[in-house]
TrEMBL record:
A Pfam family of this chain: YdjM
Residues that span the membrane, as ranges: 72-91, 97-116, 128-153, 159-179
Keywords: Hydrolase, Membrane, Transmembrane, Transmembrane helix
Domain of life (superkingdom): Bacteria
Name of the featured protein: Metal-dependent hydrolase
MF term (GO), any: hydrolase activity
Length: 331
C-alpha cells in the first residue's frame, strides 16, 4: 500500500485499541499506543534508508524484502515498543507491544494483497508473495477510515466505531479477493489461452487489468464487467541480441529484474547510440509503463548511464539519466 494508507491505518488501529477497557481508561497508555500503531504501520518501509545510502537501484531490489520478513515483524515491534516505553514510564508494556505488533503485521499483510508484493516468507523463502486483489491506493479503505475519524471527533466511542469499520473493511477485502478469482477464471475460460495469467487490481471493483504471458508473447488487457479489452501485445525479445545482452550487465537492470514480473525489453536508436528500456507490464497507466529500468549505450555499445524506478514522464527520465551519466564521468 502507499504511505498515506499505512499512516491512516495506524491512526485507525489506535482508535480500535479503545475497545480494550484498559486503554480507554488510561489516556497515557492510549497516547503511547497511538504512537506505536502509527510507527508500526510504517516501520517496514523504513528500508527507504537503502535509497539514501545505496541508491535507487539497490532500493528497488530490496524494498519490501528483509524489512517485511518474519523476523522483522518481531524485531521492529520490540524496538518501537521499547523506545516508546522509555517516554511513558507509567503504562503497562504488554498492550503497547501487541497493538504495535498488530500494526506491523497489517502493514505487511496489506502489502501482500497488492500487485507489488513482499518477501514476507523470508528467511524460509525469498519468493515474492503477491495476492493481487487490492490496488496500491484503495479509496474505499481510506473512506472507511475517514468516516471513522469523523465519528471519533463527534464523541462516538472510537473502539466501537473502528470495530465495525474494520468488520466492514474485512468483508470488503473478502469480496475483492473472490472477485479477483472470478475475473481470472472468466478471462481464462473466455479466451481459452494457455500460459501465465496475472490479474491486476484497479480502484474499481468491476474493472481489472491483466497480463497474459506465453513462451513467445505478452498480452496486456483489461476486463470491465464481462467485457475483455486487449490493449497491447508484445513479441518477446530475442535474447541473442547483443544490445540486450549488454544491458543485462548493468546493475540497475539486475536490481530491476530481481523483483519484477512480466518484464519486456525494448531498444531504440538514438543520435549517440541506443536506449534499452526494460518495463514491468503489471504497472500500466493508459499506454505507458512507468516502472522500468533504462540503459543508455553509446555507439560502441558501452553503458554510459542507467536508472531504475518509477518514471511518470520522459522529461524526468532524461534528468535522472543525465544525473547518473554526470556521476559516472566524475568517477
Amino acid at each position: 500500500m502507499d504511505t498515506s494508507t499505512h499512516i491512516t491505518m495506524g491512526f485507525g488501529l489506535a482508535g480500535l485499541a479503545y475497545i480494550d477497557p484498559a486503554v480507554a481508561a488510561n489516556p497515557e497508555l492510549a497516547h503511547a499506543i497511538l504512537i506505536g500503531t502509527v510507527a508500526g504501520s510504517n516501520a517496514p518501509d523504513f528500508d527507504y534508508v537503502i535509497k539514501l545510502f545505496k541508491g535507487n537501484g539497490m532500493y528497488t531490489e530490496h524494498h519490501r524484502g528483509a524489512s517485511h520478513s518474519i523476523p522483522a515483524l518481531f524485531i521492529l515491534t520490540l524496538i518501537i515498543s521499547s523506545v516508546i516505553s522509555l517516554f511513558f514510564s507509567h503504562i503497562t508494556f504488554l498492550p503497547l507491544l501487541y497493538w504495535t505488533f498488530l500494526a506491523v503485521i497489517l502493514h505487511v499483510g496489506f502489502d501482500i494483497m497488492n500487485t507489488y508484493g513482499t518477501q514476507a516468507g523470508r528467511p524460509f523463502t525469498k519468493k515474492w508473495l503477491s495476492l493481487n486483489f487490492i490496488p496500491l491506493f484503495d479509496p474505499i479503505i481510506i473512506l472507511i477510515h475517514v468516516i471513522g475519524f469523523i465519528l471519533w471527533l463527534t464523541n462516538f466511542s472510537p473502539g466501537i466505531v473502528f470495530f465495525y469499520g474494520y468488520f466492514i473493511l474485512t468483508v470488503y477485502l473478502i469480496i475483492r479477493f473472490f472477485v479477483s478469482l472470478e475475473k481470472r477464471r472468466y478471462i481464462t475460460e473466455a479466451t481459452n489461452k494457455m500460459g501465465e495469467m496475472t490479474i491486476i487490481p484497479t480502484m474499481w471493483l468491476q474493472k481489472w487489468d491483466f497480463v497474459h504471458e506465453t513462451e513467445s508473447t505478452y498480452q496486456v488487457g483489461s476486463i470491465h464487467g464481462k467485457n475483455i479489452n486487449w490493449i497491447h501485445q508484445f513479441d518477446k525479445a530475442d535474447f541473442s541480441c547483443e544490445i540486450i545482452n549488454v544491458s543485462l550487465a548493468d546493475k540497475n537492470v539486475q536490481h530491476f529484474l530481481a523483483n519484477s514480473k512480466h518484464t519486456h525489453v525494448l531498444y531504440f536508436p538514438t543520435p549517440s547510440g541506443f536506449d534499452v528500456q526494460w518495463i514491468d507490464l503489471r504497472f500500466r497507466n493508459k499506454d505507458y509503463y512507468p516502472y522500468m529500468a533504462i540503459v543508455k549505450l553509446d555507439r560502441s555499445q558501452n553503458i554510459i548511464a542507467s536508472y531504475t524506478g518509477w518514471v511518470h514522464n520522459t522529461k524526468r527520465l532524461d534528468e535522472k539519466l543525465l544525473s547518473t551519466q554526470n556521476r559516472a564521468i566524475q568517477l
